[in-house]
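User: Hi! I'm working on a homework problem where we have to compare a predicted structure to a textbook description. Could you give me the structure for the chain below?
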Amino acid sequence: MGNYDPDEFEHVDTEDAAHLVGVPDAFQRLWTPHRLVYVQDSHQPEEHECPFCHAPGMDDERALIVARGTLAYVVLNLFPYNSGHLLVCPYRHVAGYDEATIEEIAEIGSLTQTGMRVLRDVSKCHGFNIGLNQGQVAGAGIAGHLHQHIVPRWGQDSNFFPIIAQTKALPQLLGDVRVALSEAWPN
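Assistant: Happy to help. Predicted C-alpha cells:
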C-alpha cells in the first residue's frame, strides 16, 4: 500500500470515488449496515431487568426453556441465527466466563454437549457454531449475564436473505422447536 497523504483527499469530490480506491488486501468485505444497531445500541438491562434472570422463574413453555440443570439452564434464543439456536445460561447473574465458578462452567459445558447431541438427533444438523460473546464491545446482546451460544449449521444454510433483505428464513416456530428439543432431551 502507498503512503497516506491526508492533503490528497482534502478536496476529493465524493462522486469521483476512483481516488479513494486502495490497493486490495487479503480480506473480503461483507457490508451489513443493518447490524449497526448491535454496535451502537448502548442500552444494557440492569440485573433486575435481565431476561436470563427472569426466564427460570417462568414456566418452560413461556420462557422457551428446553432443559434445566442445577446451576445452569438451556433456552432457545428469541432472535435465532438458525432454527434451534440455543443459549446455555447460569442461573446466577454473572457477566464473565472468568467470574463463573468451576461448577457452573462444568455444567454449562455438559449442557452444551447434550444440546449438541440433541440438536444433531432432532434437526440433523451438520455442524455448530459455539461461542461466548464477552462484553458489549464483543457483541453480547445481554452483556451482564453470561450465556453460551449453540448455533446448529447445515450445509448450504447460508443464503442472501439476511444480507440483501434483512430477513432470516426460519422453517419452524420457536414453540415447536422448544417442544421437539425438550422432548428429546435426556432426563
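For your comparison, note the following. The chain is about 30% helix and 15% strand. The chain has one domain: 33-184. Good luck with the assignment!
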